[in-house]
């Protein structure tokens, strides 16, 4: 069975009951959620082998989040335990013409404090055929961005299919670098990129303002040195994914063997 690994932050969601506003509610309903965690849960519901990788504090709230995932048959064996707190978001559900309202409280969360080397990606990705992350993950903190790149590089080295949902959130990119600076290093490892108009516009801006101009920036010999450097890095990171060897292997495993088993 194919195994999918997702990576991101799972948060405690505190929502007002029904359609009450924050100022009207006297209690909040607690659940857990996050883009990448939701993907893992959905895949597990379809009977797929899904693993969620993240970081949670070693306390009762962290335990409850893990229990919620395990109850939905998601593998949590590579969730790092450490840090002081779980990220929280408060939700006020909209009604009729009034939109929903979300307030985030995720600064200095366990996930935001992740650092390279804390997760053994060789083991976490063992047996995986697909790795998924979203643009929210590198926006959380510099450490989370570095670990996301670490994961993408490990998945690419293993020939694993990599997908991302760009999910551009302007309000989250506050830790120093812009989305353009960080995402261009991450998406070059991806086989599949998902996004809406806003996400696409952000990526097109990166191409138009940061990447394409390098093609026309020539040295004295008429060579676009910086462009060539980027292309070499791209080939280095993606060539293994599109080799004839991999194509033949995928045809054999996904089609020919399946045809033999099903008659």
What layout of secondary structure does this protein have?
Layout: E1 3-7, E2 11-15, E3 29-33, H1 35-45, E4 49-53, E5 55-56, H2 60-70, E6 80-81, E7 88-92, E8 101-105, H3 121-124, E9 130-134, H4 136-140, H5 142-157, E10 161-165, H6 179-187, E11 192-194, H7 197-215, H8 225-238, H9 244-262
Parallel strand pairs: 1-4, 1-9, 2-7, 5-6, 9-10, 10-11
Antiparallel strand pairs: 2-3, 7-8
Helix pairs in contact: 6-7, 7-8
List keywords for this structure.
263 residues, alpha/beta, UDP-N-acetylmuramoyl-L-alanine:D-glutamate ligase, 2 domains, 5-stranded parallel beta sheet, 4-stranded mixed beta sheet, 9 helices, 41% helix, globular
Report the sheet-strand fraction: 15-25%
Low-confidence stretches: none
Q: What's the CATH class label of the largest domain? A: Alpha Beta
The CATH topology of the largest domain is what? Answer: UDP-N-acetylmuramoyl-L-alanine:D-glutamate ligase
Q: What is the overall silhouette? A: globular
Distance separating the two termini: 19 Å
Query: How do the strands line up in the largest sheet?
Result: 4-1-9-10-11
What is the domain tally? 2
Characterise the protein shown here:
The protein has 263 residues and is α/β, with parallel strands linked by helices. It has two domains: 3-196, Ribokinase (UDP-N-acetylmuramoyl-L-alanine:D-glutamate ligase), CATH 3.40.1190; 216-263, no CATH class. Helix content is 41%, strand content 18%. It contains nine helices and eleven strands. The strands form three sheets. A five-stranded parallel beta sheet has the order 4-1-9-10-11, sandwiched between helices. The protein has a four-stranded mixed beta sheet with strand order 3-2-7-8. Strands 5-6 form a two-stranded parallel ribbon. Helix 6 (179-187) crosses helix 7 (197-215) and helix 7 crosses helix 8. The longest helix is centred in the last third of the chain and has 19 residues, at 197-215. The protein is globular, with a radius of gyration of 21 Å. The model has no long low-confidence stretch (mean pLDDT 87).
């Amino acid at each position: 069975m194919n195994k999918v690994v997702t990576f991101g932050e799972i948060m405690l969601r505190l929502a007002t009951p029904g359609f009450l506003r924050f100022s009207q509610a006297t209690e909040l309903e607690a659940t857990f959620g996050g883009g990448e965690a939701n993907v893992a849960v959905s895949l597990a519901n379809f009977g797929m082998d899904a693993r969620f990788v993240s970081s949670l504090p070693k306390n009762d709230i962290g335990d409850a989040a893990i229990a919620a995932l395990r109850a939905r048959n998601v593998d949590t064996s590579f969730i790092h335990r450490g840090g002081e707190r779980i990220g929280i978001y408060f939700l006020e559900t909209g009604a009729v013409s009034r939109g929903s309202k979300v307030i985030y409280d995720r600064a200095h969360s366990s996930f935001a404090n992740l650092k390279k080397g804390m997760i053994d990606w060789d083991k976490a990705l063992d047996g995986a055929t697909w790795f998924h992350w979203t643009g929210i993950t590198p926006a959380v903190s510099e450490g989370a961005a570095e670990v996301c790149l670490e994961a993408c590089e490990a998945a690419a080295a293993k020939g694993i299919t990599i997908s991302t949902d760009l999910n551009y959130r302007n309000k989250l990119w506050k830790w120093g670098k812009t989305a353009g600076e960080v995402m261009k290093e991450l998406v070059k490892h991806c086989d599949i990129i998902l996004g809406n108009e806003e996400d696409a516009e952000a990526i097109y801006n990166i191409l138009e303002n940061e990447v394409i101009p390098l093609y026309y920036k020539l040295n004295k010999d008429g060579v676009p040195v910086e462009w060539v450097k980027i292309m070499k890095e791209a080939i280095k990171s993606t060539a293994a994914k599109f080799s004839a060897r991999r194509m033949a292997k995928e045809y054999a495993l996904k089609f020919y063997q399946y045809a033999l088993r099903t008659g």
